[in-house]
Q: What sequence folds into this?
């Protein structure tokens, strides 16, 4: 069983959590739960670069590794931060995760819908959030970037790439993650 715990600075509606659970269940049986009582505000903001106005994602990831200290491969934690993140050398990142690790971070700032029209902006925001959570969790399941641009594991340079891809893993990625999991034998 994959156990996904989410610590989020924003409310995440149940259908989003269910979609994440269902999508990961194609790889292995999955349980997704929100951890309500953890407040990471101080830790997260201590990695904010006040000149850039963004959070150093790499440093935060390292710090969170010590905060949670998870050992089991099947236990993953997703931190959803209502802010903007970067890694040195890149203007911004949508998220960051440890390859084959336990911790995934998603930043919401670049997922926010800044144009209006015929679209339902709330739905679009949560679709993007779902994709980014699945993407970063994929990295924790040892998946690297996928050349299939429709696959949620494809690399997104911009929000247009995020909107183009689907909120699911392609067949190849599902098979890869399954073989990793069977190799880890949990
Ligand atoms: Zn990635
Ligand atoms: Zn793929």
A:
């Amino acid at each position: 069983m994959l156990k996904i715990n989410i610590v989020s600075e924003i409310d995440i509606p149940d259908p989003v959590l269910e979609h994440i659970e269902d999508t990961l269940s194609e790889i292995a049986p999955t349980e997704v739960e929100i951890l309500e009582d953890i407040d990471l505000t101080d830790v997260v903001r201590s990695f904010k670069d006040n000149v850039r106005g963004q959070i150093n994602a790499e440093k935060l990831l390292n710090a969170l590794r010590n905060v949670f200290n998870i050992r089991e491969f099947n236990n993953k934690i997703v931190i959803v931060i209502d802010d903007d993140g970067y890694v040195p050398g890149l203007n911004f990142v949508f998220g960051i995760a440890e390859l084959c690790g336990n911790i995934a971070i998603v930043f919401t700032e670049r997922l926010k819908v800044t144009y209006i029209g015929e679209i339902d902006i709330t739905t679009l925001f949560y679709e993007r959030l779902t994709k980014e959570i699945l993407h970063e969790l994929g990295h924790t399941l040892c998946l690297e970037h996928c050349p299939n641009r429709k696959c949620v594991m494809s690399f997104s340079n911009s929000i247009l790439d995020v909107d183009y891809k689907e909120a699911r893993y392609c067949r190849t990625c599902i098979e890869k993650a399954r073989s990793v999991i069977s190799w880890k034998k949990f």
